[in-house]
Write a structure and sequence with these properties.
60 residues, mainly beta, three-stranded antiparallel β-sheet, 3 strands, 0% helix, elongated, Glyco_hydro_b
Length: 60
């Protein structure tokens, strides 16, 4: 996927990422934090997102 930010004055992306080691990972009552949000940031020169992840981000 290619994202084009040429029409804006943006230099970075910050937000939260939700991912885990395995695509079948899940939280249970015994393992409550297998899948949990973490901080995420990147410059826009080369934005690489991990497979099996969800990102909520803001352009800065």
């Amino acid at each position: 996927m290619t994202l084009d930010f040429d029409n804006g004055d943006y230099s970075s992306l910050v937000g939260q990422i939700l991912t885990a080691d395995a695509i079948t990972a899940k939280n249970t009552f015994d393992a409550k934090e297998v899948v949990k949000p973490a901080s995420f940031s990147s410059d826009l020169d080369e934005l690489v997102l991990p497979a099996k992840s969800i990102v909520v981000a803001e352009l800065k």
